[in-house]
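Quick log. Single chain, no ligands specified.
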Amino acid sequence: MNMYYGILFSMLSFAIIAGGSILVFVLYQKRLLKKQEEFYLLDARYKKDLIINTIQSAEVERMRIAKDIHDEIGSIFSSLSLAVNQIKKEDHLSKEQVQISKSLIQTGINSIRRISHAIVPFELELLGLQQTLDNHFNSISSLSGITINFENEYKLDLLNNDTALAIYRIMQELLSNCIKYAQAKKITVWIKHNKDKKCLNITYRDDGIGLDMKNKNLQKGIGLKNIESRIIALEGAVNFNSEPAKGFECELMIPLNKNNIK
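-> predicted structure:
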């Protein structure tokens, strides 16, 4: 009987964690809507394009997360329900039944952690942007074989959570594009503090095959609009430079104002 209550307690804990994961997703969506409202200060035509792109990106993300929750978490809860019904029919639990229940619970916890991480990378709060970027660059370099040089001269812990998350997502987007399309062997990322203009200058550069910046469909396909939207939300600026066979460069300017620092 104690073992039965133990499993029920584990299931309750699992449900609480699942609820927390969904709450994090809701808060993320509220923050995204707040950023969309700031776009009303932009030029009407350009603003409309950015808002449409942001909404489409958010919708894709919502659908992906909803599918993950439905497919993974729903399946696990169904299996746990069957396990509980089986427990009710029997006077005792076999070691195999206990192990199956524990395995289902652990699988559910791991799934929730993965889905939550896709929404908000919690290592940003635990380790800060500097260490999170270091870890991400090292991981990508090890997996892809691409040499990544990262130089930073600013104390990134001074940035607020929204700004740090935006920079991290932009770096993810740029590295993902490089791995998929660029065939690069080397990537360099600089973060410089422009004290005169009170801003951060971030430069990404790779030695890949480059792309035709006049091809609007190609730009949209590789997520440059997403990067642009994030930077505009930070009241910053972005510039892309590339030509076929001459690599790719992305220059970001992020003002160090009250909206972007702690």
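The chain has a mean pLDDT of 76.
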